[in-house]
Amino acid sequence: MRQISLTELIPGMILARSILSSKGQVLLVAGVTLTEEYIRKLKNLNLDVVFIKDEKYADITIPEYLSMETQQRALSILTATMEKVNKGENFSVDAVSSVASDIVEELVTQADVAIHLTGIAIYDDCTLAHSLNCSIYSALLARSCGFTIPQIKVITCGALLHDMGKIEIDKKILNKPGSLTNDEFAVMKQHTALGFKLLTKKRLEISSLVAHMAWQHHEKIDGSGYPRGLQGEQILSYARLLSITDVYEAITAHRPYRKAMEPEDAYNIILSGLGTSFDEKFGQIFLSKIALYTPGTEIFLNTGERAIVVSVPVNNPQRPMIRLISYPDGTPYTPPRNISLVANPQISIIKRPNPS
Ligand SMILES: [Fe+2]
């Protein structure tokens, strides 16, 4: 199995992972042979990469941390909740809280893993995809930071709901390509307090910590964040953790209005913000556990060779096991050769081909 960008898809390839809609419905089921028509549909879905079966890489397994059923349930519950909020109807967050609990149970029953999203289906709604991805990153990071299971469940629930206030923000501003004007940014910032207000209406059902995560997830350690300019430990630890996964997800994921940034660049943004934008301790743990290049991803090396990531060591996720597939002049390696980047410190990964 490998993951490739949509631009590389050709008819006849076989889809290896189902693709879900933002409502949790299966749009295209794993095992289907791609046709011109399917490929055209996929290109309309704001996807960046898909998983395909490939005989050459049959031994490369891409771990699925979160079952398709739980992903579907999370998306359909989030969609239903947001629709109710949108219509001004009474909504319950109990279902979101229970799916957060399921996500955590699934993630923490696995062996210690590097933080990444491989195996997660891709969706066509930005806010919901962002929320689900953030919840997974946050649960994995919270576990690495030593939070207890009940605490991780609250953090995961908070990550699922942190951008709820965006429902009340003008869609033209929310999805605007390019940068926002000062006035538009001032409107955008309101999603934090709006989310808090929506969630505190439900005070009896949910931990107030979840509502505070929505309010505080754009605060920064040095006080330069919003909406209140809180500093350091004035910011709830759960929100300090979420602000890291929120930024990382937002800049590495493909969005209709801008290209995804290279994971390496996102890594450097978190690194340069340690202690100023981001909590130093949580940030360092995140950077030591995040897998920038995940199994099945094609990469270019500083040697000019092309390779594919085979597996990611938990304790050194930036130095994966890779398979060399072609020489700098494009001649294929026959047979392909596996090497460990831990054992070959002189080799570095330059980038993914055709980043979308
Ligand atoms: Fe936000």
Question: How do the helices and strands line up, and which of them pair or pack?
Answer:
Layout lengths: L1 E4 L8 E2 L3 E2 L5 E3 L7 H8 L5 E5 L14 H19 L7 H15 L17 H19 L4 H13 L9 H4 L7 H8 L1 H10 L7 H9 L20 H16 L10 H10 L7 H10 L8 E4 L4 E6 L9 E6 L5 E9 L8 E3 L5
Antiparallel strand pairs: 1-5, 2-5, 3-4, 6-7, 6-10, 7-8, 8-9
The chain binds fe (ii) ion.
Fe (ii) ion (FE2) binds next to loops.
Report what the structure shows.
- With 356 residues, the protein is α+β, with helices and mostly antiparallel strands.
- 40% of the residues lie in helices and 12% in strands.
- The chain has helices spanning 36-43, 68-86, 94-108, 126-144, 149-161, 171-174, 182-189, 191-200, 208-216, 237-252, 263-272, 280-289; strands at residues 2-5, 14-15, 19-20, 26-28, 49-53, 298-301, 306-311, 321-326, 332-340, 349-351.
- The chain has a five-stranded antiparallel sheet with strand order 9-8-7-6-10, with no helix packed on it.
- β3 (19-20) and β4 form a beta hairpin.
- α3 (94-108) packs across α4 (126-144) and α4 runs antiparallel to α5.
- The protein is globular, with a radius of gyration of 20 Å.
- The structure holds fe (ii) ion.
- Fe (ii) ion binds at residues 163, 191, 217-218.
